[in-house]
Amino acid sequence: VLSHNLCTVLNVPHDPVALEEHFRDDDEGPVSNQGYMPYLNKFILEKVQGNFDKVEFNRMCWTLCAKKNLSKSPLLISDEDAFKVWVIFNFLSEDKYPLIIVPEEIEYLLKKITEAMGAGWQQEQFDHYKIALNTSREGLSAWELIDLIGSGQFSKGMDRQTVSMAINEVFNELILDVLKQGYMLKKGHKRKNWMERWFVLKPNIISYYVSEDLKDKKGDIILDGNCCVEALPDKDGKKCLFLIKCLDKTFEISASDKKKKQEWIQAIQTTVSLLRAGSPPPHKEARQKRKELRQKLLAEQEELERQMKELQAANENKQKELETVRKQLEAAAARAAEEEKKRLQTQVELQDRFSLELEREKMVRQKMEEQVAQKSSELEQYLQRVRELEEMYKQLQEALEDEKQARQDEETVRKLQARLLEEETAKRAELEKWHLQQQHTIQMTEAEKQELENQRMMKEQALQVAMQQLKQLELERKEALEQYEEVKKKLETAASNTKSWKDKVAHHEGLIRLIEPGSKNLHLITNWGPAAFTEAELEERQRSWKGKKATSE
User: Fold this and answer.
1) 258 shares a domain with 145
2) Does residue 482 belong to any structural domain of this protein?
3) Both 21 and 101 in a single domain?
4) Domain end (from 280, 309, 325)
5) Residue 87: which of 8, 146, 3, 138 has the closest Cα?
6) If exposure means fewest CB atoms within 10 Å of the residue's CB, which of 43, 94, 170, 367 is most exposed?
7) Under 8 Å CB-to-CB from 515, ≥6 apart: which residues?
8) Distance separating alpha carbons of residues 84 and 179, to the nearest angstrom
9) In the listed set 176, 206, 237, which residue is the last one of a domain according to the structure?
10) Does 36 share its domain with 75?
11) Are 163 and 149 part of one and the same domain?
12) Residue 444 within any structural domain of the chain
């Protein structure tokens, strides 16, 4: 009966001949000593193709084991809810027999149920429960998990209906792969009318039913990587519209509000993205990651235990070695006692000899201390001399920097003076030109005198302006000369400082040679270049220019 029911649920053809052959017997009893599990694996499970109803298969297994193992004490959940918790346990349990669910998965499941009930998660309460659990066992069996949820320990204040709805929501998500579900309006393909349907989104399909009891299924929307979803503007009196495009059909759907519309669009887009990437549903991927993390932590813990055992073995070896060393020390102490007697006999003889050698060593030590004191004094004098030379070197560096800065200032003043002289020469040439033009104007005929007189007045005004500019240039040139004098004084001061430091350095063994300052004679700078003519020639040119100026006036 069991084999026949398993084959029916798993959609596998039943082979009664193989069953009879496997369990045949004779007058002495069963021919084969193999149990039911080899037959189950060979003739039933190996033929499963995966096209069976997993919920029905779970119900059959639940029927076989629930009556014997389910607690007789009253629970706050129904038998149907207990069945769903049992199926969830099989999904979250570890892959080893006997099956248990570890505390981390218990916390994950209780959190999901609490969130589905709309209550707040009590982390502190679960931590106390986890501590009590870890002290006694590694996890819970399926029946202990059903007792935990059915006791209402983590759902206080909630009624049976709320807990049942929460368990059903978690069951739909984890076991039935329901990513989202709810009522929406769908536009028909033939009559184009709008009908309310209960939509259920799974990893590769959207099914829609007449109501949420899922009894009357109206159709499916097959999803793949080529599908897409788009929001539509309101039309025909319908709001919150969106469009699901598949290869062969297009579906127009209207949500109840904008929030639901956005949630459905986001959920469908996420599902299509997972199909394109070939990724499993989010809860299965999260379970796999949690399992890998637990395996990693377990491996690290086993490694630590192995290292602790190695350290413990090494410690025991060290203890044995220390015991051996202690025995050796006891034997050595016995030998040392015998040698002590011999040493006391020779000590008296050696004491006199050591006394003489000690006196000799004291005399040698005293001489060495005197030599060390003398060397220390010489070293202190040498270090003092080195510090003086370093200080002198720093001051010399500062003096050289001052001299360098003074030379730079002198060069700047020279360039400024040259520029002023060039501007002054250009103005003088322009004035001479204007003066010659004025004399030429005076020698013109009387008929043009009146007109030329007006032009002369205008030129005289321009000449006055030019004279004022010339005076301004002369003032600037005087200021430049004063700056040049100040820079020259700084340079002389720097040169004198350099000279005094040169004498000091020469006094200390002449380690550094100073940079000699340049000539102190005044250099003349004109627009023709430095030292292009003497002071006498410059005075002669000035007298000639003043004479021409007086003649023009």
Assistant:
1) no
2) no
3) no
4) 280
5) 146
6) 367
7) 400, 403, 498
8) 17
9) 176
10) no
11) yes
12) no
In whole angstroms, give the CA distance from residue 9 to residue 59. 10
Average pLDDT per 10 consecutive residues for the chain, totaling 553 residues: 85 82 66 71 83 83 85 82 88 82 85 85 83 77 85 81 87 84 88 89 90 88 89 85 88 91 91 85 78 83 88 90 90 88 84 85 88 88 88 87 86 86 86 83 72 81 84 84 83 76 60 47 55 69 80 70
* Domain extent at residue 117: 53-176
Question: Phi, psi (5° rounding) for residue 182?
Answer: 165, 170
Residue 368 to residue 372: CA distance in whole angstroms: 6
Does residue 194 lie within any of the structural domains? yes
| Phi-psi region at 73: left, alpha or beta (left = phi > 0; alpha = psi -120 to 50) | beta
Do 544 and 435 form a contact (C-beta atoms < 8 A)?
no
What radius of gyration, in Å, describes the C-alpha atoms of the chain?
Answer: 56
Q: Hey, what amino acid is at 463? A: L
Tell me how far apart the alpha carbons of residues 366 and 360 are, in angstroms, rounded to a whole number. Answer: 10
pLDDT at residue number 412: 87
Same domain, 17 and 81: no
**Beta carbons within 10 angstroms of residue 256's beta carbon:** 14
Other CB atoms within 10 A of residue 106 CB: 24
Do 150 and 185 sit in the same domain of this protein?
no
Distance of CA 302 to the CA centre of its chain: 32
- 211 & 257 share domain: yes
What gap in Å lies between CA 47 and CA 12, rounded to an integer?
Answer: 7
Let me know if residue 143 belongs to a domain.
yes
Distance, CA of 83 to CA of 98 (rounded, Å): 19
Per-residue pLDDT at 37: 82
* Contact by Cβ (8 Å): 177, 202: yes
Three-state DSSP at 181 gives strand
Domain count, the chain: 4
The pair of structure tokens assigned to 287 is 């379970």
Tell me the CA distances in angstroms from 154 to 67, 109, 119, 242, 381, one per residue in order. Answer: 25, 11, 10, 40, 87
| Nearest alpha-carbon partner for 117 in 174, 157, 172 | 157
- Please check whether residues 81 and 11 belong to one and the same domain: no
